[in-house]
Amino acid sequence: MQITPLLYFKPIEIYLFYLTLTIYCIGTINFLIYLIKPRPLFSLLAFYITIIGFVFHSIIFIFRYFTYACFPVTDLHQSLFFFAWCFVGVFIIFNIKHKIPVLGSFVTPLAIVFLISSATLFTQKPVQIPPPLRSIWLPIHTTLAFLGEAFLGLAFCGGVMYLIQENQIKNKKWSRFLHRLPSLQTLDDLNYLCLSLGFPFLTLGIITGSIWAEYAWGSYWNWDPKETWSLVTWLIYAALLHGRLTIGWRGRRAAYFLIIGFAVVLFTFLGVNLLLPGLHSYDSFTSP
Amino acid sequence: MNIIVAGLSHKTASIEIRERLSFSSRNLTTPLQEIVNFPAIYEAIILSTCNRVEIVCTAADSEKVIREIKIFLADFHKLSLDEITPHLYFYTGQDAIRHVFRVASSLDSMIVGEPQILGQLKDAYRSAVANKTTGSILNRFLHKAFSVAKRVRTETDIASSAVSISFAAVELARKIFDNLEDKKILLIGAGEMAELVTRHLVSHMVKELFITNRTFEHAFLLAQEFGGRVLKFDELFDNFAPMDIIISSTDAHDIIITYEKIAKALHARKNKPMFLIDIAVPRNIDPRVNDLPNVYLYNIDDLDGIVEKNRQVREKEAKQAEEIVEKEQMRFYVWLQQQEVTPTIITLKEKFESIRLKEIEKTFSHWEGLREEDKEKINALTHAIVNKILHGPINFLKTKGEKNRFPIEEIKKIFNLNDKEDA
To answer: A212: which of A119, A225, B63, B385 lies 20 to 30 Å off by Cα?
Structure first.
């Protein structure tokens, strides 16, 4: 992989990308201040700034859609970029509905990490995907899968918050941080809600993916690493959901599950592409 | 115009004295009317809570007002002046403004940061408004006090954490369960602290309360008081599963709630969280239950530790709050001064003019054969003298009075401007 950003990116894309990143950073700083000094002003400011960042994030995406005349989720850079977009978008909707602004203090730094990583993961130039793969299933499959993973990302943040809060209450280490984080019940509900939204999307993502595989490669399931690891991810979340509903896997155990689950999601997403060869490795689109 | 606060609080008077000097907050009409009937007092508010009795008023002559309020308090409560004087404090000017702001912001409370006082002050103000004993100064003053209290509340963490054991328990419960409305609480045993915790939980909308005690009568009485249900002591121990919060405070000398019982209950309730509060000494609940997932056990020392920590936080925050109060106090004081200068000048001019007119009338009445033009000359002469004399004091007021209350008071004293009847 060569670093030739100018071949890959149009200049305007680069400017917009930096702008988006800067706005997100300002939003994140506000969210972190909010964590230290929980004045409603900071959370509102942070949230509105994040929304502005999201607007620019969307503009880049739309720009790419028209420039490349294709749903721009064709390589690892674009995928991670789109995933960050889903992640922030899901958070914005979630916060409007459920008003847990402190979640932003965990979500926005993670979103920045995704965006910055995406900037380092570009190929020489945008992949022109071959005709067999140009289908309506590309946007459907990627959107569903990423929405699911975005919700699971929120659940991951919720899980981290749960563990911090639980540790304080369980071990009687009361810090001022205790008042910044929501109650255990709220966090557990949040985690469950994210899981119960993320899991169906993930399932649909896998199903649509296999339908697309049937169209593209002639077989629903090829056991390539991406598919295998997707299945592993799915099984982890399925186990958690099942455990929760039947024998009450909640609280700390659920939080650990959500954290491990999301780590596997990231591995399936990035690790498989970077480390293991297979159909989903974007430079081998034409095989098998 | 001066703001004066007179009163007594938990800092200066015992509960017995406070009780005897308190006013019924339901009927403040009589005392309010009596106060404003005193000649020196213009406006008045009475704040009477279990921790303080305070009269906030405006007047021109603060010393006179202090005397009048003492007499009023003694007469109204049928006590002698000597009995009440040692417990009273008086604040005037900036001290009075600061004091009321501090009271409203709960900086002067027994438990710093407790929120009730602001509501009580608002009620007191409403009563005074209803009885028409407030005017432009107190109206503005009290609204300012409310906004200062709000500022302190939003800009500092003074009220964010509990500083009593029972509040700490409630706060913990809310950090675990968020909403306590649909939670089931079990109180085992009795005791002051346990009842206090229960009372606070019940005041947080907890609806389902179960009480058990070795002596049925005691449990029954408590249940009546809190609106709970009595469980039989012996049946209880197979029945922990539905309970979300258990408060234990029996005088049993060993552990009555074991690890196994809670583990069993937890399994039956599918790991839903349980919050156990062990107030008893020696302890009633096996400390190992805290190792169970989703079970949170706090004993009296744990709660004490939290309270101590929160108290330190509050003390730190209180400093920040005092700074806010100080700034706002200065600002309000400047406003008060500006209200003051012009009226003082007018009163001063009116006073001199009335003296001049009186004297001229006197002179003219027994000065026969005075011509009209002479009269006019004398008129002009006296007018000029008065103006020349007043020039100094008025200039003094205009330049110094804006920033400093001292010249206004001095001028008022020198020219005796303070008596309502006199002016």
So the answer is: A119
Three-state SS string across B268-282, please? Answer: HCCCCCEEEEECCCC
Closest C-alpha among B52, B46, B60 to residue B8: B52
Assigned token pair, B415 = 């020219």
Query: Which is it for the CA torsion B69, B72, B76, B80, positive or negative?
Result: positive
pLDDT interval class at B312 (50, 70, 90): confident
ipTM reported for the complex, 2 dp: 0.83
The C-alpha atoms of residue A228 and residue A226 are separated, in whole angstroms, by 5
Q: How many secondary structure helices (H) and strands (E) does chain A include?
A: 11, 0
Contact B271 A165 (CB under 8 A): no
* B301 vs A contacts (CB less than 8 Å): none
Residues paired with residue B184 on neighbouring β-strands, in sequence order = B208
Backbone φ and ψ for A136, nearest 5 degrees, come out as: -60, -20
Tokens of B76: 């109204």
Q: Give percent of chain B above pLDDT 70.
A: 96
Give the one of A172, A179, A248 whose C-beta lies nearest to B305's C-beta.
A172
- What value does the mean pLDDT take over residues B160-167? 78
> What's the gap in Å between the CA of B293 and the closest CA on chain A?
7
- The answer to whether the beta carbons of residues B275 and A170 sit under 8 Å apart is no
Q: Is the pLDDT of residue A284 over 80?
A: no
DSSP classification of residue B46: E
Which residue in the block uniquely carries the two structure tokens 């280490």?
A173
Rounded Cα distance, B309 and B250, in Å: 27
- B85/A contact by beta carbon, under 8 A: no
B289, B278 Cβ separation under 8 angstroms = no
Confidence of residue B189 (pLDDT cuts 50, 70, 90): confident
Longest dimension (CA), chain A: 61
Report residue B319 as tokens: 């400093």
Distance from CA of B303 to the nearest CA of A (A): 9
Query: Cβ of B174 under 8 Å from any chain A Cβ?
Result: yes
Res. A279 pLDDT band, cuts 50 70 90: low
Distance in angstroms (rounded) separating the CA atoms of residues B311 and B160 = 11
pLDDT in tens, A101-110: 999 999 999 9
The whole-model pTM stands at 0.73
> Across-strand partners of A271?
none
**B361-386 core/surface letters (b: 16 or more CB in 10 A; e: else):** eeeeeeeeeeeeeeeeeeeeebeeee
Helix axes A137-170, A184-217, angle to 10 degrees: 160
Rounded mean pLDDT, A64-74:
82
Give the C-alpha distances (Å, rounded to integers) separating A287 from A70, A142, A216, A268, A271. 20, 20, 10, 20, 20
Distance CA A29, CA A108 (A): 9
Q: What secondary structure, in 3-state letters, does B322-374 show? A: HHHHHHHHHHHHHHHHHHHHHHHHHHHHHHHHHHHHHHHHHHHHCCCCCCHHH
